[in-house]
Design a protein that fits this description.
By secondary structure, the chain is an alpha+beta fold. It is about 35% helix and about 15% strand. The radius of gyration is 18 Å and the shape is globular. Bound molecules: flavin mononucleotide.
């Protein structure tokens, strides 16, 4: 487990060194509002360099969260929860618990969102695990929900970074997250200061088999 974590940490560290994954010259990507789905998907990137001084309103974040509510969930269980830090002190407190690299890369992001899911519901029936995946279905639903969030954010002209490198116990304390919920990703929200490079994708035939 520790070895897996170290490998992931090393991979992220290497990623930070790639051109476009840290700071790079700003070319000022426009807001994507009114764009087609494909354009939104293509322009969404993990952004690790945010403009200073961006203001995001609660109404704008509510619109993102409302969009996530349209995502499918196990038996409509809707187990994902969001904790949205907008005040300077809460945002700063969260950034202290996402690792030095993530903190540096999200330095100017004005909003930090912590996603969780309620354990023991998605993938469960009458309190019993329905199949071998168990609470993995809660994580599955949470990822789907977050996918809606980051794409809607892009459509609104915002940018995001999903972060799995975070200290869940500290986040629980800061935000009052109960033990009945599993802390998942932290998502930064802001506006890009530079255009990130698109990391290469595998050849499609490596990830699909048709029968
Ligand atoms: C579950 C998950 C966890 C991630 N954790 C981090 C992280 O802690 N730090 C980081 O810089 N990027 C993180 N990423 C972003 C990925 O590195 C990124 O999505 C991938 O390199 C592809 O780049 P793209 O999002 O720009 O297409 C994470 C992504 C996911 C989906």
């Amino acid at each position: 487990m520790k070895r897996t974590f170290s490998l992931i940490a090393a991979a992220f560290a290497a990623l930070m060194l790639l051109p476009g994954c840290g700071s790079s010259p700003k070319s000022g990507a426009p807001a994507a509002s009114g764009s087609s789905f494909d354009e939104i998907v293509a322009s969404r990137r993990s952004v690790r360099d945010y403009q200073a001084g961006t203001t995001i309103t609660e109404a704008e974040v509510r619109a993102l969260i409302a969009t996530t509510q349209e995502a499918p969930t196990w038996a409509n269980s809707q187990t994902t929860r969001y904790y949205v830090a907008m005040s300077e002190d809460k945002v700063a407190a969260i950034k202290e618990h996402i690792g030095a690299g993530n903190a540096r890369n999200t330095a100017n992001a004005p909003v930090m969102i912590v996603s969780t899911f309620v354990k023991g519901q998605a993938g469960f029936g009458r309190g019993e695990q329905v199949n071998e995946v168990g609470d993995g279905w809660g994580a599955y639903d949470n990822g789907l929900s977050n996918a809606y969030l980051i794409l809607k954010a892009r459509e609104q002209g915002f940018d995001t970074l999903i972060m799995g490198m975070r200290e869940s116990d500290a986040l629980r304390q800061i935000l009052g997250i109960p033990q009945t919920e599993q802390v998942m990703a932290v998502i930064s929200l802001g506006k890009r200061a530079s255009d990130p490079r698109r990391p290469d994708r595998k050849p499609i035939d490596e990830i699909v088999k048709f029968f």
